[in-house]
C-alpha cells in the first residue's frame, strides 16, 4: 500500500504543485490520478519513487517512508512506465526489458530468460527481441515499456500517461492488455492520465485532482459517476455520465424472454411483432416481423452476465426490434431482453 | 641539370627513405604524430569539459566562447608566439591544433549529450540507474554518433592543418610544399598533397568504421529508412 500523508510539493519558484494530499493506493489495486494539466498528478506520481522529493508530509510504501530509502535502490523496486515508453535506443529490445535485472546484478542468462518470458507475456512476438526500439511501432514500444517495468517483478507499478501517445485503437488494446495482466499479477498500480474515460475504464479507485494540486474526490468509478462531490468533478466527468455509469451495472439480473426464438419465419406466436431467427447451433441470425416475413433485420447482442448494461442497451438500439439478444460464451442465444426488461433494469440502476 | 629533372616515380624512389632527416617516410611519421596527438588531446579534454558544461549549464557559454576565440586566432602568429616558449619543435605545432580540436569537439560533446531524449533520461532515472552509471551506460552511448561526427571533422582538419607548420620548419609533409618555393619542381608538391589527402581519407574511414561498430542501432536505422 502507498500512503500519501499530508504531502505538499512547493517548487523553488513558489508554485504549489501538490497541496496537502492525503490518500491511499491500496495493495493489488489500480489507483488512477486524473485531472487537468497543472493538477500535480505527475508530480504526485514522481514523489513516490523520489524523482521529485516532497516539501512537506511523507509518502509511505507499506509503512516505510520513501525518504528513508536510497533513490536508486527504491526505484529498482518500483516499475515505471513513461509516456513515450522511454526505451533506450541503443539497446536491443531484450536488453531494454532486462534493464532492471541487470542493475540488480542478476546473471545474464536469468535476466535474458526473464525478458523473453515478459516479451510474450505482454503479447509481443519473441522475434522482436533482437530488434532496436525504433524498429517497433508506438504500440509495440509501449508494450516493451510495460514489460521492462515488470522485469524484476516489483510489487508497485507507476504509470505516467503511458498510453496517451498512441492512436485510439492501439490505446484501447493496451488498456485491455493492462487489465488482463493486472488480473494475473495483482500489482499495486498508480496510473496517471488526463483522460477521464481511461481513468474510469482502468481504475479500481479514481482520484480527481484540481489545478493547484488539491484532491477533489477519491472514489470508485461508479460512485464518481453517480455522486460527483462538486461542480468541478461533475464538469470534469463531462457528458453522458448516466450512460457511462451503466458500464458498471451488470446484466446478470436482467430478465430474459426465451419464447421469442424461432428456427424459421413461420414459427412463433402471431401475437408477437418480432421473432428472433436462430441457426442450427443456436446462434442468432436476425429479427423477423410478420409484415415483412422475407427480410431478416439486424440484431445486436451482448454476453449475458459478463457485458455491462451499457452493452445491452447499445445492442437494443442497433436493432429495429428494440430488443437486445443475450448470448453465452459460445455465441448461443440465451434469451432476449425486451424493452420492458431493459426499462426495469434501467429504473433499478437509476435508483442506485 | 645535365640529365633533366627526374620523373615523379624516380623522385619518390630516391627520396622515400634516405636515412637522413627530411625523407618522405620521416615526414610522413612526423605528420602523423603532429596530427594524431592533437586529436587525442582534443578528445581527452573535450569529453570532461563537455560533461561539465552539461552538468553546469552556465559554464557552456563562456567555455565555448573562449574556444571559438582560440579557433579564430590565425595559426601563424600563434606559432610565432609559441616559439618563444617551445622553440621550433613539434610541440609548437601540436598545441594550437589541439586547441582547435577542442573548439570543434566541445559543441559536439554537448550536442551529443543534449541529443539524449528527455523521456529516455527520465526512464533511466526511474529504472534506478545511479548518476554515474546512467552517464556511462545510457547518455554517453547515445551521444556517440554526434561526438564521432565532430571527431571526423577534427581528424581531417588536423591532418590538413599540420602542413602550415612547415613555415616554422615543422610541417610534416607540408615541408614538401616549401621546397617548391625555392625550386619550381612539382613532384614533391604532388606527393605531399596526395599523401595528406590519403591520410585524411584513411583517418575518416577508420572513424566511420568505428561508428558502425560502436553504434549498430544508427546503422540499422539508415538501412530501414532506405
Automatic annotation (TrEMBL), chain A:
Keywords: ATP-binding, Nucleotide-binding, Transport. One of its GO terms (molecular function) is ABC-type quaternary ammonium compound transporting activity. The keyword Nucleotide-binding applies. Pfam families: ABC_tran. It is an enzyme of class 7 (translocase). It comes from the Bacteria. Residues 2-236 form the ABC transporter domain. The keyword Repeat does not apply. Belongs to the ABC transporter superfamily. This is ABC-type quaternary amine transporter. It comes from Nonomuraea deserti.
UniProtKB/TrEMBL annotation, chain B:
It comes from the Bacteria. This is ABC transporter permease subunit. InterPro entries: ABC_transp_perm/SBD, MetI-like, MetI-like_sf. It holds the Pfam family BPD_transp_1. Its main location: membrane. GO terms for cellular component: plasma membrane. The keyword Transmembrane helix applies. It comes from Nonomuraea deserti.
Amino acid at each position: 500500500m502507498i500512503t500519501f500523508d499530508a504531502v505538499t510539493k512547493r517548487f523553488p519558484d513558489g508554485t504549489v504543485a501538490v497541496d496537502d494530499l492525503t490518500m491511499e493506493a491500496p495493495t493489488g489495486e489500480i489507483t488512477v490520478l486524473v485531472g487537468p494539466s497543472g493538477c500535480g498528478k505527475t508530480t504526485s506520481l514522481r514523489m513516490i519513487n523520489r524523482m521529485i522529493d516532497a516539501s512537506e508530509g511523507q509518502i509511505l510504501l507499506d509503512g516505510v517512508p520513501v525518504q528513508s530509502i536510497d533513490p536508486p535502490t527504491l526505484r529498482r523496486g518500483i516499475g515505471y512506465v513513461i509516456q513515450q515508453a522511454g526505451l533506450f535506443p541503443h539497446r536491443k529490445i531484450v536488453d531494454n526489458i532486462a534493464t532492471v535485472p541487470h542493475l540488480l546484478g542478476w546473471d545474464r542468462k536469468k535476466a535474458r530468460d526473464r525478458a523473453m518470458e515478459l516479451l510474450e507475456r505482454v503479447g509481443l512476438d519473441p522475434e522482436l527481441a533482437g530488434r532496436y526500439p525504433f524498429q517497433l511501432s508506438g504500440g509495440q514500444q509501449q508494450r516493451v515499456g510495460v514489460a521492462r517495468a515488470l522485469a524484476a517483478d516489483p510489487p508497485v507499478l507507476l504509470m505516467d500517461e503511458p498510453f496517451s501517445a498512441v492512436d485510439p485503437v492501439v490505446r484501447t488494446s493496451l488498456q485491455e492488455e493492462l487489465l488482463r495482466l493486472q488480473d494475473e499479477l495483482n500489482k499495486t498500480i498508480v496510473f496517471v492520465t488526463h483522460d477521464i474515460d481511461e481513468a474510469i475504464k482502468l481504475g479500481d479507485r479514481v482520484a480527481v485532482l484540481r489545478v493547484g494540486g488539491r484532491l477533489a474526490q477519491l472514489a470508485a468509478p461508479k460512485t464518481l459517476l453517480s455522486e460527483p462531490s462538486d461542480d468541478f468533478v461533475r464538469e470534469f466527468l463531462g457528458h453522458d455520465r448516466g450512460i457511462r455509469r451503466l458500464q458498471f451495472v451488470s446484466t446478470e439480473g436482467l430478465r430474459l424472454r426465451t419464447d421469442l426464438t424461432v428456427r424459421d419465419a413461420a414459427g412463433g406466436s402471431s401475437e408477437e411483432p418480432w421473432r428472433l431467427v436462430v441457426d442450427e447451433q443456436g446462434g442468432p441470425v436476425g429479427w423477423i416481423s410478420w409484415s415483412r416475413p422475407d427480410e431478416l433485420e439486424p440484431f445486436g447482442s451482448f454476453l449475458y452476465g459478463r457485458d455491462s448494461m451499457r452493452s445491452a442497451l447499445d445492442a437494443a438500439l442497433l436493432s429495429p426490434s428494440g430488443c437486445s439478444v443475450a448470448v453465452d460464451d459460445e455465441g448461443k442465444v440465451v434469451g432476449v431482453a425486451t424493452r420492458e426488461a431493459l426499462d426495469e433494469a434501467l429504473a433499478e440502476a437509476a435508483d442506485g | 641539370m645535365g640529365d633533366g629533372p627526374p620523373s615523379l616515380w624516380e623522385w619518390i624512389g630516391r627520396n622515400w627513405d634516405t636515412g637522413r632527416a627530411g625523407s618522405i617516410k620521416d615526414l610522413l611519421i612526423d605528420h602523423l604524430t603532429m596530427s594524431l596527438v592533437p586529436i587525442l588531446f582534443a578528445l581527452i579534454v573535450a569529453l570532461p569539459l563537455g560533461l561539465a558544461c552539461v552538468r553546469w549549464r552556465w559554464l557552456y557559454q563562456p567555455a565555448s566562447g573562449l574556444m571559438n576565440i582560440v579557433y579564430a586566432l590565425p595559426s601563424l602568429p600563434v606559432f610565432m608566439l609559441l616559439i618563444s616558449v617551445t622553440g621550433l619543435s613539434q610541440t609548437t605545432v601540436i598545441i594550437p591544433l589541439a586547441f582547435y580540436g577542442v573548439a570543434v569537439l566541445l559543441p559536439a560533446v554537448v550536442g551529443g549529450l543534449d541529443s539524449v531524449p528527455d523521456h529516455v533520461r527520465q526512464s533511466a532515472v526511474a529504472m534506478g540507474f545511479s548518476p554515474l552509471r546512467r552517464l556511462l551506460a545510457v547518455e554517453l552511448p547515445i551521444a556517440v554518433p554526434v561526438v564521432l561526427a565532430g571527431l571526423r571533422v577534427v581528424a581531417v582538419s588536423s591532418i590538413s592543418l599540420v602542413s602550415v607548420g612547415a613555415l616554422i620548419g615543422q610541417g610534416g609533409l607540408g615541408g614538401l610544399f616549401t621546397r617548391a618555393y625555392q625550386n619550381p619542381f612539382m613532384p614533391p608538391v604532388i606527393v605531399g598533397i596526395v599523401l595528406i589527402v590519403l591520410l585524411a581519407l584513411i583517418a575518416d574511414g577508420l572513424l566511420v568504421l568505428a561508428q558502425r561498430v560502436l553504434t549498430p542501432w544508427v546503422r540499422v536505422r539508415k538501412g530501414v529508412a532506405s
